[in-house]
Amino acid sequence: MAQPPGRALIVGAGLAALRGAESLRAAGFSGPLTIVGDEPHPPYDRPPLSKHVLTGAVAADATTLPGRHGLAADWQLGTAAVSLDRQARTVHLADGRALPYDRLLIATGTRARPWPNPHEGRLSGVFTLRGRDDAAALRCALAAGPRHVLVIGAGFIGCEVASLCRQLGLPVTLVEPGPTPLSRVLGSTVGGLIGAIHAGHGVAVRCGSEVEWLEAEGGRLVRAHLVDGGSIATDIAVIALGAVRNTDWLEGSGLSADCGGVDCDARGYVLDTDGQPDPHIAAAGDVARFPHPHYGGRRVALEHWSHAVAQGIHAGRLLAGAGPEVPYGALPTFWSTQGDLVVKSAGLTEGADAVAITQGDPAAGRFVALYGREGRCIAAVSVDSARWLPAHAELVAARAPFPPRGAATDRPKAVTILEPGLP
Amino acid sequence: MSPSADASSGPPSGLRVSVDLNLCQAYAQCCYAAPRHFRIEGHEALFYDPAPAAQDRDDIERARVACPVQAIRVEDPERGA
């Protein structure tokens, strides 16, 4: 029963990697542990990067996460993994070295989806926002007092950056091809309510609109041209088009992986292209695509902070060989701070066929929306109403009937069932 | 505001703080315990200092303990915690 500890290797040095390493140690793994990261920085917290780092209240290099001390890990930072040889149980690094493993955790996360035209993407004044260095560079540009900021893409990062620009007193335009901000994840009904709050704070929200190309003068961005023929003069553009999973290095490994993640079984072991689990390798965090038990085994890859923590802990225990191998199925939750506005969610909205405002009042800017599918609660979203979310999360966790019964004192008297407006 | 006016990262030997903002429900007890390191913006957006100076550890520890939902995590290399 007692197996030799062997060597543990974690590829990736973000939140999931760090919590995975802690969990591996906490579960009793005492062998050598190596952690490889492509960035030179120790694990840092990303949420502040699109918020207080950009306002200057927090320095980019102050975001280092707690948890590194006492790990007894060999940190190999500043060098990326470039390939995985599962037969030889070896990971090859960009600097030519090869690291052996007996237990491997894949936690390589995501990178910002780049602007499709690489030349335009490299112009001075054009930014993406994913890493610590990205945030430091964008902070410098915002602090220099640009005349105008253009945010391309009204997902969570786009909304966070746009609302923060208003807090800094900067004119900002938010361009989004969808019908409202956040429509892909929250649907156009709730997205429209949140978009109206941002518009009320002075964000110029332009939905149903797309940037076709970026014009430069002397290598500096000066203007964005829209598909419909209009243009926006701007000296900064923030490309917020979502993320791409870092699975390129797994090409040729025989694992089932693509730009949507590396596939895992319910326990967290990665799957090969024949669908067979590799019991030496687990994955966690943004990069892991796994069947979620709460949503009928639908395969999802979640870019949530709490998920990186929970799945990292799960994978650490799994690789340590501690206890029974149980399916991972934490209820997805996330938050997004947009200016002073806090949007939180429990569950997954995908596939919702109805939504209802079940607490508060959108006109007052504070409410909870509950999403239903085939008569069951599947997700809840709170806007500046976080204390109401846990009770709604319980409805989601229990797959309670939708629309919900019961009568809270401040629940709207007649709950109106709306179309969620999901794509 | 110029970039040089930005917050400093503090000494590398200082504290490391993270808050699980999924758990945070803006009870603001941390803001009373350590007002220079935690504050509520708007209705419920928590600002926290992720790298407080080591000499503020007593305030930070009070804030951590005061949190009704235990959302605050602190690492203090000098105390091995």
TrEMBL record, chain A:
Keyword presence, Phosphoprotein: no
Superkingdom of the organism of origin: Bacteria
Residue span(s) of domain FAD/NAD(P)-binding: 8-312
Ranges of residues in domain Reductase C-terminal: 334-408
Cofactor(s) listed: FAD
InterPro entries documented for this protein: FAD-oxidoreductase/Apoptosis, FAD/NAD-bd_sf, FAD/NAD-binding_dom, FAD/NAD-linked_Rdtase_dimer_sf, Reductase_C
Entries under SUPFAM superfamilies matching the protein: FAD/NAD(P)-binding domain (SSF51905), FAD/NAD-linked reductases, dimerisation (C-terminal) domain (SSF55424)
Pfam families: Pyr_redox_2, Reductase_C
Keywords on record: FAD, Flavoprotein, Oxidoreductase
Name this protein carries in UniProt: NADPH-dependent 2,4-dienoyl-CoA reductase/sulfur reductase-like enzyme
Source species: Methylobacterium fujisawaense
TrEMBL record, chain B:
Domain of life: Bacteria
Record-linked Gene3D superfamilies: 3.30.70.20
Name under which the protein is recorded: Ferredoxin
Naturally occurring in which organism (per UniProt): Methylobacterium fujisawaense
